[in-house]
């Protein structure tokens, strides 16, 4: 009987590995080595559980169509524009930028933008909480809906589980169109369940945009259960750049509709009208890992400094190596992370990356409170800010977006803002782990690479 069971188990393992290989090939999935190893080990040890989980949660990209080679550059072209052209993204465009100094300014900016909308309001968020600040935003949206403005709200299905659902009911009763991006219930054939829309925009009249790292919840603006708000970054855009963001919202809105999802596509490529703002969406709807590629390229081009802030630092191995190499060749690399974030697993999983980066000479700053901002500055030449964390899920799995800034003013503002946050931070000191901790960290990375 034991021999028979072993034979059936061996067949299940072989079958699971074959299905894994075939599906990965058909999907043209590219995942970090630790992710591939974790799936293979899971299929060997527990194929009956791992195979269904892989088929449901293992997908990373939509099946892209055949890629068309990018047209040749016309004259002198900034390297970021060349990358965007190669990715099939809209090129750099003009626009005005206004950063918010803190959560209170961010909320005021959002409410003012909503109140000034004349024809259309489109909102995308990961979390829309039924707390005081969430209710204030909802009330502003409902007021515009009653004034004849078309209001649409796109909320991520997983994010909905993190907040009370009353806000959705209230919006819908007022006539606001609400869609859930990949609801936690139900399963669409051919669509992985582990994909989340982490993009955060409010777009007024297809031109003015409020975006960044803040969700629509009190901890991002005023207070979290009576404590101080989280440190975060949002900003407003106005001008042609707004139309580029609005087109991406349209694609996401269609993708959230079961009837329209089959024909939803990414933002059409375009040369742009010229300018210093580049909108960079990333995620399963992009054939390439756009933000990751830009970050790695920018690390290799940095000459003097790289300054970054992120709530979670569990980066792709390629990005970690690019940051290390920059530090090793003399570039001043400064990284700001919270001493303790709102995700304990992420804090435990980051230890190896922090030690590796510190070992290359980078300076790591641990902020005393929760820092949820996402931005990175390269010399005085380029900065990116938006929703992308420097962790594998955000870089490779989530639907995300960043804006790349090339003008001197926004680069200087972001650089100064990050520097100001490091004043109260303490320096990270790497401590060599014990053998047991080192093994534990490795297992944690292998088991939680997609959490």
Could you give a quick summary of the protein structure above?
By secondary structure, this protein is an alpha/beta fold.
Written overview of the protein:
The chain is 42% helix and 18% strand. The chain has 16 helices and 17 strands. The protein has an eight-stranded mixed β-sheet with strand order 8-16-14-13-9-11-12-17, with helices on both faces. Strands 1-7-6-5-2-3-4 form a seven-stranded mixed β-sheet, sandwiched between helices. Strands 10-15 form a two-stranded parallel sheet. Helix 2 packs antiparallel against helix 3 and helix 10 packs parallel to helix 11 (317-328). The relative contact order is 0.12.
CATH superfamily of the largest domain: Endonuclease Chain A
- Report the sheet with the most strands, covering strand number, pairing sense and barrel closure: 8 strands, mixed
- State the CATH topology of the largest domain: Endonuclease, Chain A
As laid out across the biggest beta sheet, the strand order is 8-16-14-13-9-11-12-17
Number of E strands: 17
Percentage of residues in helical conformation: 40-55%
Q: Kindly state the mean pLDDT as a whole number?
A: 85
Task: Give the overall form.
Answer: globular
Report strand %: 15-25%
* Helical/strand content category: alpha/beta
Radius of gyration: 22 Å
CATH class of the largest domain: Alpha Beta
Pfam families: PLDc_2, PLDc_N
Keywords: Cell membrane, Membrane, Transmembrane, Transmembrane helix
Protein name: Cardiolipin synthetase
Subcellular location: Cell membrane
